[in-house]
Amino acid sequence: MQDKLVTVQRYLAESQSLHPEATGAFTELLWNLILAFKIISREVNKAGLASILGLTGERNIHGEEVKKLDVYAHETIVGIMQRSSPLCGMASEEAEEVIPIPPGRPLGKYVLAFDPLDGSSNIDANASIGTIFSIHQRLSKEGPAVRADFLQPGGRQVAAGYVIYGSSTILVYSSGSGVVAFTLDQSVGEFLLSHAGIITPAQGKIYSVNEGNALTWDAGTQRYIAHLKEKDAASGRPYSLRYIGSLVSDFHRNLLYGGIFLYPASQADPAKPKPKLRLLYEVAPLALIAEQAGGRASTGAARILDLQPTELHQKVPFIVGSKVDVERYEAFFQGRER
Ligand code: AHG
Ligand code: MN
Ligand code: MN
After folding, report:
1. Structurally, how many domains does the chain consist of?
2. Most buried residue, 29, 159, 165, 309, by most Cβ within 10 Å?
């Protein structure tokens, strides 16, 4: 039984040994990131006790200033990653600009973009929340990272993944050779390999969308969602609607069970489509995971991983999940299917 226990450290060490040219810098980066995840998981799990749910500037029973969980998660990741990992800069949902590495520290060749706490509107309801991360190699030659280092197509990510702080804490990760997942064994403080190679079903029977936005959708999206509700036993329709409102949780369920997640742009003003999800640290990392698991990730018109970002907090429409389902959506969105 013991030899079945593969910790994430051992997994990363074995992965590194497959790359003789590796210096260990990437592995060290991930080890530090994993430490941050363990600390955030601990805080999320005791959040109810320390009454840090959704509050700012309060003091808990220990007299410590308590922070909103997403600020806490942001500061935990920045604090750990600034002190000890081969980065030259970071970008966070919680920071307008690039976060530099403090002067005097060595600068590495990687940049990290992250959503420190995804699904934060669900914290007080104790629904699952998560962290999403994306790693690129820098483009600039030396010195502190610049915005251009982050504005790279998602297809060039060195690695990406997410953590779900739910009934258990699960880390889902890909560095371009498939998708693996590790479950945190809180008693020993180790992430243990729990899914050696996730493949998402080619087609599902679940769709995940905020139906409250239906009147703002474009005609193709409206026709597609209506199509999912029509009875057609052969194609498994009608699909079931499952929507938690935490992207990591909705994505993870559909990754395992099959299905499609949609956050189309609001066309309330057709002249100015308004997407919601952020390309660099929500959409691109999950698109890498989806494709590495055999799924598909699209704006409806273009492959997510081909998009050339233009700004750090850029928002894009996000349609992701089982290949057959996303392709069908694209046919409706592009008017090839009525
Ligand atoms: P965040 O908590 O990082 O701001 O992300 C919230 C996102 C995402 O988690 C989820 O899919 C989406 O907001 C839900 O949006 P709606 O409430 O508009 O459906
Ligand atoms: Mn988010
Ligand atoms: Mn967030």
Report:
1. 2
2. 165
**What's the rounded mean pLDDT across residues 306-329?**
98
> Residue 127 Cα, ligand 1 centroid: separation in angstroms?
13
Residues 140 and 21 in one domain: yes
Single pTM value for the model: 0.94
Question: Do residue 175 and residue 234 come from a single domain?
Answer: no
Question: Going by C-beta distance under 8 Å and a sequence separation of 6 or more, which residues neighbour residue 175?
Answer: 15, 158, 159
pLDDT band for position 66 (50/70/90)? low
Indicate whether 300 pLDDT > 90: yes
Distances (CA, A) of 213 to 130, 143, 221, 276: 23, 44, 11, 12
Give the domain range for residue 276. 206-333
For ligand 1, atom 1: residue with the closest CA? 118
- Peptide bond just before 201 cis, omega within 30 deg: no
The pairing of strands 260-263 and 206-208 is parallel
pLDDT of residue 193: 96
pLDDT at site 175: 95
Considering the domain architecture, whether residues 130 and 248 belong to the same structural domain is answered as no
